[in-house]
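WARN no homologs supplied; continuing
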Amino acid sequence: MNAEVQSKLVTVVRDLGLQDYYPIWQKMQQFTDTRDASTQDEIWLCEHHSVFTQGQAGKQEHILNPGNIPIVEVDRGGQVTYHGPGQLMMYILLDIRRAKWGVRDLVSALEKSIVDTLGEYGTKAYPKKDAPGVYVDEKKICSVGLRIRKGASFHGLAFNVDMDLSPFQGINPCGYAGLEMIDCTHIEGPKNMHDAKRDVVAHFCQALGIKHTINKEGFDE
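OK structure emitted
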């Protein structure tokens, strides 16, 4: 394999900081729709201003009292959830056809990245077969939702690090009435976004055998 082809297999990790949800969703779709077989894979890390997102399977009955927080209907799998500052979003824009991964491989790697991250701090976390995401003592700390288009993935995970959890009370999180959400301030885990980004990316890339490089400047305009 020549150096040019090899370089294309290195995934670029972009740290985008605090962002509005809608423009990032639009950029994910644009990236996926315009990529080709030679496009380098990317992972985007960010936080969002407060927003509820309703997945393709979403039912209006699970939105109880959103208040003045906007609701965006999106093209990922799953039901309704909340995003806000202090929650790590990791969006995975990967050519799964080229890498010969299945959707289950991606979901398992996303969940494993959180389980392994929390395990480093001594917290036992686990996924559930019937309810994607990661849990600690039956409380949810990470949500997972993906979309596959043209053999490529986008969307990803939402990991509660140090955030205001009260907006979750305005919905049935992920479609489950009474589901309690927690963040890392309630358990042993990364207490700041820097450590969470470092740990989760490292474990995710290790799970899939991904080589990656960090781009701290965000998008190349």
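The two ends are 30 Å apart (CA to CA).
OK
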